[in-house]
Design a protein that fits this description.
Elements: H1 7-18, E1 22-23, H2 33-38, E2 52-53, E3 59-60, H3 68-85, E4 89-91, H4 97-108, E5 114-117, H5 133-136, E6 140-143, E7 146-147, E8 152-153, H6 155-165, E9 169-172, H7 183-193, E10 196-200, H8 205-209, H9 216-219, E11 223-227, E12 238-242, H10 245-253, H11 265-302, E13 319-321, H12 324-331, H13 335-344, E14 348-349, E15 355-357, H14 359-363, H15 368-382, H16 388-400
Parallel strand pairs: 1-14, 5-6, 5-9, 9-10, 10-11
Antiparallel strand pairs: 2-3, 4-12, 7-8, 11-12, 13-15
C-alpha cells in the first residue's frame, strides 16, 4: 500500500512548484494577497438560510442569525459589480461559472425550449450541447454559424438561423475567444425572433470589466454570466449580471433549494476585494493583457509557430490560438497534448486544446518584452529541440523576477 503524505506537504510542494512555473493557461489567474487572505476568514465557516415559513404561516426572513456581516459583504460585492459592468442587478452567489450558466439558462428557458450557442469544435463551451448541461435542463441546442478562418460568428448566416429557428435564447461567448462578438448584429435578430440574448463571459469578464472587450449591456445583452477567476482575477466562482428586473427575479427564484444552498461567504468576501481592485486597476490591467497577447502571438509567429488570425492582428483578447492542422503536421497526431506535455517538462504550463493565455503572467507584472522571451523559450523547446534542463533553468530564473501580483492595492 502506498504511504500517504499529509495534505500540508502536498500543498506545500504544489505551491513551491507552481511558483517556479510560467502559467499560460487562459482559464487561470492569481489573486492579490488581500483577496487570498479573505478565503481563510471566519465567513468560510458560516451559513445562511433563506426565508422560510413557520408552521403558523409566518414568514421568517433569514432563519439563521449572526449573518449581519454576510449580508453586508454580499450587498457590497453586488454594488461594485453593477458599477463596474454598468448594469442594474448582480448575483454573486453561484459557486462556479458553470453553475452561473445553469442558473441563467434555467431562469430564462423552460424545458423543451431551443437554445443556440457556439459549437465545441469552434471553441464553444461543451455545457451548451444537448447531451450536457443544456440537455439536463431539458433544452435542445443548435449551433451558431461560425467561420474558422476569421474565428468569428458568421453574422449573416446567424441572423437567418435565429429568424428561422426562433430559439428561446442565443448564448454568445466561448472557451476559445479571440475577438469580441458583434452584439448589435445579433441583437436585432433576437428582437425579431423573441429570443433572449445571453453572454457567457467566463473567459473575458476581466477584459469587459477593464473596458477592453466591449460594453455588453449598452450593446444589447439581456443577461451576462461567467467565471470570476480567468481574466477576472478573483476566487473560483461565478456571477450573474443583468439590467432586467424580470430576469433577476427569475434568477432569485432559481437559487435557494434549487441550485445554491450556502453561498460560500468567504469566497464572496474575496470576490468583493477583487471587484474593488478591478474598479481601481481594471483598465490598465486589461489593456496590458491584450497588448501581451498580441505581442506573444506575433513573437511565436516570427519563430515559426503556427498562430491563428495573423491578418486580423492575431487577437483582441487574452488568448493566442494555435492552428491545429499545422501543429499536427509538424508534431504528430496528438499535437496539442504533445505540445502541452513537452512544455510542462520545462515548467511552462498550457492546456491541451491549442490556447495560450496572458492573463496570469500579466497580473504578475510581465509586459511585451517578456512575451518575446517566453516565445523564444517555447520555440527552443518545440522547434529547436534544445536541452530541457537548460531551458527549465531559464524559466525558473525568469519567474523568480515576477513573484507578486500587480494591479492591486498590496
Amino acid at each position: 500500500m502506498k504511504r500517504q503524505r499529509d495534505p500540508e506537504t502536498i500543498v506545500g510542494e504544489h505551491d513551491s512548484w507552481r511558483a517556479r512555473c510560467l502559467n499560460l493557461i487562459p482559464s487561470e489567474n492569481v489573486m492579490s494577497d488581500a483577496a487570498r487572505s479573505l478565503l481563510s476568514c471566519d465567513m468560510g465557516q458560516r451559513y445562511t438560510l433563506p426565508d422560510i415559513e413557520e408552521m403558523d404561516g409566518r414568514l421568517v426572513e433569514n432563519a439563521y442569525r449572526g449573518t449581519r456581516y454576510l449580508d453586508e459583504i454580499e450587498w457590497y460585492a453586488e454594488e461594485l459589480a453593477c458599477r463596474i459592468f454598468r448594469c442594474r442587478y448582480a448575483c454573486v452567489r453561484p459557486i462556479s461559472g458553470h453553475i452561473s450558466a445553469l442558473i441563467a439558462l434555467a431562469s430564462i428557458c423552460n424545458r423543451g425550449d431551443l437554445i443556440m450557442a457556439q459549437g465545441f469544435e469552434h471553441g464553444g463551451y461543451p455545457g451548451y450541447q444537448s447531451d450536457e448541461m443544456a440537455g439536463m435542463l431539458g433544452l435542445k441546442s443548435i449551433l451558431l454559424p461560425f467561420g474558422e478562418r476569421e474565428w468569428d460568428i458568421r453574422y449573416d448566416e446567424a441572423t437567418q438561423s435565429i429568424l428561422s429557428s426562433r430559439p428561446r435564447a442565443v448564448v454568445l461567448g466561448a472557451s476559445k475567444m479571440l475577438f469580441p462578438p458583434n452584439i448589435g448584429r445579433i441583437r436585432d435578430a433576437c428582437d425579431e425572433a423573441g429570443s433572449t440574448l445571453a453572454y457567457d463571459a467566463s473567459h473575458v469578464l476581466g477584459l469587459i470589466g477593464g473596458n477592453r472587450f466591449g460594453d455588453p449591456f449598452k450593446e444589447g445583452v439581456d443577461v451576462l454570466f461567467g467565471s470570476t477567476h480567468k481574466t477576472f482575477f478573483g476566487p473560483q466562482g461565478g456571477i450573474i449580471l443583468t439590467s432586467s428586473a424580470e430576469i433577476m427575479d427569475s434568477v432569485d427564484r432559481h437559487l435557494h433549494w434549487k441550485t445554491v444552498d450556502n453561498a460560500h461567504w468567504n469566497r464572496i468576501a474575496s470576490l468583493a476585494q477583487a471587484l474593488l481592485e478591478m474598479e481601481r486597476f481594471g483598465e490598465p490591467y486589461a489593456r496590458q493583457v491584450v497588448l501581451n497577447a498580441k505581442s506573444l502571438a506575433a513573437a511565436l509567429d516570427r519563430r515559426g509557430l503556427p498562430v491563428q488570425c495573423r491578418e486580423k492582428g492575431y487577437t483582441e483578447s487574452h488568448q493566442v490560438g494555435l492552428k491545429g492542422p499545422e501543429v499536427a503536421r509538424s508534431l504528430g497526431k496528438k499535437a496539442f497534448e504533445a505540445v502541452a506535455k513537452r512544455l510542462e517538462q520545462v515548467d511552462i504550463i498550457i492546456d491541451c486544446v491549442g490556447r495560450l493565455g496572458t492573463n496570469e503572467v500579466t497580473r504578475l507584472g510581465m509586459k511585451e518584452r517578456e512575451m518575446g522571451v517566453i516565445a523564444d523559450l517555447i520555440a527552443r523547446v518545440l522547434i529547436n529541440g534544445e536541452d530541457l534542463a537548460g531551458v527549465r533553468e531559464e524559466v525558473h530564473e525568469m519567474r523568480s523576477r515576477f513573484r507578486k501580483p500587480v494591479f492591486c492595492f498590496d
